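Researcher: Here's a chain I'd like modeled. Treat it as a single chain, no partners, no ligands.
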Amino acid sequence: MGAELPLFPVQASTMAGRVDALYAFLILVSVFFGLLIAVTLISFAIRYRRRSRDERPPLIHGSVALEVAWTAIPLGIVMVIFLWGADLFFAMARVPPAPMEVYVVGKRWMWKTQHLTGQREINELHVPVGVPVKLTMTSEDVIHSFFVPAFRMKKDVVPGRYAAAWFQATRAGTYHLFCAEYCGTKHSGMIGSVTVMEPAAFQTWLAGGATGTSLAAAGEKLFQDLACITCHRSDSEGRGPKLDGVFGHPVTLASGERVVADEAYIRESIVNPSAKVVAGFQPVMPTYQGLVNEEGLMQLVAYVKSLGGPATAGPGAALASPAPATAPAAATPAPPPRPKGQGR
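Model: Modeled as a single isolated chain. Structure tokens:
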């Protein structure tokens, strides 16, 4: 953790010090060149001012060395900023292996979080200190932005897409959570808190909030209630592709294209099954757009992930990649009969 900047929020994550170091460098470079230009401008205005109406300035032919210097020096500074910023960007985009996973849904005007173990929170998030936490996020209505200043972490969430972000808290405490994207008349009230706890205290909190139903178990129940199991059978005899072990694997589509079965692909296969039809199957699955809310979709995603796949190995069931909002969507475009209610 780097030295904290005055008047800035406390540094409470592994990335906070690195972000502040780059920001401090940008401030120092800006102040230095701002003062240099101002002082040079004023001194030149005084030294080379026109002293009489008859005065004629001498002809100046320029300087190649000066031209090279004021081109090369700024270029070097800009490249340092670019490489430093790119390194930080990739570090913030790469989710560490086996993180603790939390699903987040933004909705006017609240944040709804779901833990894999079943705990749900509104405008609150409890996490342990020293453990990487991966957030899989989306929005139910408009664009929101999940912003925790103490973690120096901000991620936009867009309706219909999944976005992933991660952080690792370094000190226990309660930190502000904001929506940093104007989302409507009560945007300023879309606030909450992230409570970072010592591991033992976090385990106590988990036990106290246990519902007995994990996110994957809730997804399995929804999967059965929607009769998805009639088409996505484990014996490969159904009208839809088999889901066991599909998560994280490449899937061959009817078009010949190959995509990775990640969270986004699973979601797209539920709400727009005809978009990416698996090779060997017919596009007979009905859409469940509007029939399953975002929380239900995340439960179904968690269930498919629980069925196995390379990206589900490890205690945190981490994504193989950061899963940007534009990543291909997961599960399997299959054709379950369309029941009433929510569904896949």
